[in-house]
Amino acid sequence: MESKTKIEADFRDFVTARSAALHRSAFLLTGNWATAEDLVQTALTKTYLAWRRIGDIGSVEAYARRVLFTTNVSWWRRMWRNEHPTEQLPESPGTDHTDAHVERDLMWRFVLKLPPKQRAVLVLRYYEDMSEAETASMLGVAAGTVKSQCSRALANLRTQLAEAGIEMAATNRHGRRPAT
Amino acid sequence: MTRELERVLRATFEDRTQPVPPQSEDLADSVIGRARGVRRRRAMTGAASALAVVVLAGFGLVFGREFLQPEEAVPSGDQLTVPVIQGLDVAVPKPADGKDPYLQTGDGVRVALPGGESLDKAVRLPEGYLAITTKDDSARLVYYPLSGPAVPITDGKNLSMAVDMTAENVAVSRTEGVAVRLDVYDLNGLLTATRQVAPESVLEGWSAGLVMYREPTGLHAWDPPADAVMSAPEDQNLRFMGSSVDWKTYALFETPTQTCLVTVVPTEGFDIDLDYCYDGVIPSEVIGVSPNGDWFVGRGMSEPTGESEFISTYLAQDLISDNAGSMANLGVTDVSDWVWESESSILYRTPNGWYRMDLYSRSSEALAIPPGSSAYPIPRAFTG
Asked: If you count residue pairs, one on A and one on B, with CB atoms under 8 Å apart, how many are there?
């Protein structure tokens, strides 16, 4: 069995190497750095407690990421059931905002409005570059669920962007609408 | 069109994660300190979690009917001594040395049970154990503090028990002729409430201060202080699954096309508050909710294969976004018993012995209970 000192040393190495990446993912899931920090700490604590059971070091990051994603959804669920957040998004800008910055800003706002399960799927698919199968494994759901959640999320984003005056179908590969 | 949307999405994620704020240099120390605190709390309570609720209902069925039959082909006692298993309470009905049965804490304290009686059920409380033992046709419920004399609670025929979320009250059912009676006692053995219920009623557990029991006509909730009973609509055919530390009541019902895991509000006519529906009938011969309400685990025969399955779902992901669940097979067969160890880990038994499974990773490890032993993990009275 690994000694406590060895485990702590390995854990410190892991935190040093991977905490920034975990923070980035956590930020995309939570939408703010402070909550992301809490989420990472919670995920790392669970990971540390399970260290011996996880087995090899190669599995640690996958475990930590799985805890990160599932814990976030769990937090959101409690908040939804107990606190009923009332955060209002700013009003949509007019249709003349067409540059990439505004487009991404709007996209981010709409991503934050997605249910956490859908947001988690998008982060895994388009930020972590995971396949549907890998995403399903990470979230502990069926691949079909990932596909439907992803499809629903993209449709949701497309609709909201369209309502804000940005038509993805009409944008060129630089993210701008062609001149009319 | 979708590709363009995906491109903007990727670019948005990249934009938003640059730069990462400076990381705290003592993050690892902080996490290790936090983890030690968790372990200390676990050690103090003898539990794997500081949270929790007794979930006796689900696994009462398992332990009551299958596990504790005097049965196992161990003629005169276990062949090997059961070691102390850190953090785990173990009941040893048939010790290897042929002496009296005992209960053993995760740090090695033993509580001896009366000789000549067989152990039916035990549950770990913060400061001791409640245990039902039987001899011939008669059963008795006794509170065994870790230090101090045992406190007889009650005796009778066909006793069953469930501990409330304060771990200070125990509901007991017993048969009297063809009738069934429910009583509530405190840990001093003082009877605080009693009620006669229909024949064949079954005590299912506690939820939010209510004693849940099932009559042939359906699920009921008894409020002992008020002696009031609330009944679920018969046509819903609800099955009680357990409760969580936030005092929610979980139930299950099936339609010909769907199985729904729901939370209900007994005080409001068993109104269904939330539901998570799955297409088809899921294996749910025994099903239970984790102490924090995040996980469900079930066991039963799957259709149409007729094989026994062991399944779970992480409800936090089965949100109202699409009302579609993601029940997953845990990849273990022939599970005869299982019990919650913490909010995300379970202990289960197969013909090869007892194992612990982390539901996040679905990885299992064997417990140091000798295969073939009569010993088994004692469920904990989680308090909310």
From this structure: 161
* Structural element, H or E, at residue B92: strand B90-92
In the structure, how many helices (H) and strands (E) does chain A have? Answer: 8, 0
> Which of B275, B273, B258, B265 has the alpha carbon at shortest distance from B232?
B265
pTM: 0.58
Q: Looking at chain A, which residue has its C-alpha nearest residue B6? A: A126
Is-contact A139 A120, C-beta < 8 A? yes
Interface test with A, best of B317, B345, B356 (most A CBs within 10 A): B317
Cβ within 8 Å, pair B1-A70: no
CB contact under 8 A, A157 and B16: no
CA distance B76 to chain A (A): 35
* CA–CA dist B380, B31 (Å, integer): 27
Question: Token match 């975990």: residue?
Answer: A22
Question: Do the Cβ atoms of B138 and B157 come closer than 8 Å?
Answer: yes
- Quote the minimal CA–CA distance from A129 to chain B in Å: 9
Please give the Cα distance from B102 to B91 (Å, whole number).
6
* Cα distance between residue B381 and residue B384, in whole Å: 10
Spatial separation of the C-alpha atoms in residues B52 and B246, rounded to whole Å: 9
Higher pLDDT, B3 or A172: B3
Mutate to test the interface with B, among A49, A105, A132, A174 (most CBs of B within 10 A): A49
Q: What is the CA radius of gyration of chain A?
A: 19
- For the record, the structure tokens of B333 come out as 């067969």
- Give me the residue from B32, B294, B362 closest to A11, CB to CB: B32
Predicted confidence (pLDDT) per residue in B306-337, tens digit: 677 788 877 655 443 344 446 677 888 888 88
CA-to-CA distance for B46 and B40, rounded, in angstroms? 10
